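User: Predict the full complex structure for these chains.
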Amino acid sequence: MTEITENAAVKAEKPSHFIQNILRTDLEEGNVASVVTRFPPEPNGYLHIGHAKSICLNFGMAKQFGGACNLRFDDTNPEKESDEYVEAIKRDVTWLGFAWDGEIRFTSDYFDQLHSWAIELIKAGKAYVCDLNADQAREYRGTLTQPGKNSPNRDRSVDENLALFEQMRAGELEEGSCSLRAKIDMAAPNINLRDPIIYRIKKVDHHQTGDKWCIYPSYDFAHGQSDAIEGVTHSICTLEFEDHRPLYEWFIANISVPAKPKQYEFARLNLNYTVTSKRKLRQLVEEGHVEGWDDPRMPTISGMRRRGYTPESLRNFCERIGVTRSDSMVDVGMLEYCVRDDLDKNAPRAMCVLRPLKVTLTNYPEGKIERLVAAGHPNRDDLAERELPFGKTVFIDVEDFREEANKKYKRLVLGKRVRLRNAYVIEADEAIKNDAGEIIEVKARVIENTIGVDPEDGVKPKGVIHWVSADEHIECDIRLYDRLFNEEVPGAADGDFLQAINPDSLQILRGAKVEVSLRDAQPASVYQFEREGYFCLDEQHSKEGAPVFNRTISLRDSWAKMSQ
RNA sequence: UGGGGCGUAGCCAAGCGGUAAGGCAGCGGGUUUUGAUCCCGUCAUGCGAAGGUUCGAAUCCUUCCGCCCCAGCCA
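Assistant: Here is the predicted structure of the two-chain assembly.
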């Protein structure tokens, strides 16, 4: 009874997407015994939010349908790849909350098999060594509207092809001088079928296989066959590979592979005000526009992790945006919502004054320190309470005091009352200024007996502001982040995405004051600094006794909206 | 102008011939010792456009329009 109701509710809340429909149908009709997917990154850069969508999809489908998902490094181009990236990718996938089936796989694990399948194609008269160089090959390929011309070497004998391919393998031929091509159709309207290159000479060491090979298979030749070797049933990739599907199927049909995997495509993630292209992200790193791949402003998994985004929030985001075949541009506001949603529920609360203004409580006894207690979270009693030392001098934020203000301003105003969160109601009497006319201190009074209750005289405080004890607190730096780009589609305007970089994406505040309960804060835990936002310790910049906090994201701020 | 895809609200996205789900954003209101959270309400006579079929069309047919991808020995 309950189950039926719950299932019905779940169904109404979250309809299935087309990949789920395909998997369910294939399982029901017995087309596959179980589902096997794979996440196939090339280790040539760090994973970003777009990869998170693919990871959640591939691992998520395996999990939902009781199947398996492999992690396979698609390492067919040693020139661009490195072990640093494979380590980072493993770390990121794990952090996101997924576990791959069995051992890590590498396409390079299959180089021997792939090589013998290439020979199989040659023997079947379906592949040949072509002597055209890259420029010539381009000319022979034709254009989008004109068919290509056959290579002069297209009808070489099997024996000659075998001998030549062996020479390629043995390193006897120069890089670029020739290649192994599949013999399909130079007049095919789909350019991918115009005798695609399946093996090329690259005399470079490989991060996994060392100097064993000087020829490497192309993506097209390696991917589907690797899927077949691993028993992948559903090879899920992005839309730009759609035109490659006929080629994927051609190889599977013409080679003695152990299984017949199928390729399905979905739309990659586009996020506004964000760049999700490994090439561009690498450029930001290499040209020093950011601190590194894990800079908190980067949309990389490692950057978001350092920023304080949680695995749960990212998974939820990927769940919410859906999986379709239509190009879309998701609003970053959706991501921000997911981050706030998770953090609001789970982040312990604390107080931190970002821009300190000294407040002296003239009627409070000199030297007296009260140990007040505050909840760890307003809606959860399972999070530990914390102790707040309260004394004669406190810091509040400069933004929270005005000499005069209209009724909409719900903070401290001269002659008016405000509540110090988790503490007393106070009333401001005087603003002390320096020679430049800047307010450097506020003299105020504590209204007695106002811990947990309103003032006895019936004059209620206008609002609630946060504060930190001047006697006991921790000095820290705060790093505030804003979007890295000012344009919705960076570079769409003049073609150069670097021109769209937001010069104010990082703002550092020195000398902020955070409450003492954060003495042992760890980088992995995110706190809500009440009324300000969510923050976490930055492991790169923090030093012993000199913590630095990253603002993960601000709180929603309707005041900022109405006051502008 | 070849081939392959995609068009449902500002942004995602259900819907698959029976009279437009849900979420984000926005707007209005309530609760609140965070201007947060939470709660309530509101937000497409309309589904890229025009014709057609049908008692009935976002769903079927025709034509048109727009956008994306493909001419690496990258993936």
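The first strand of chain A starts at residue 36 and ends at 39.
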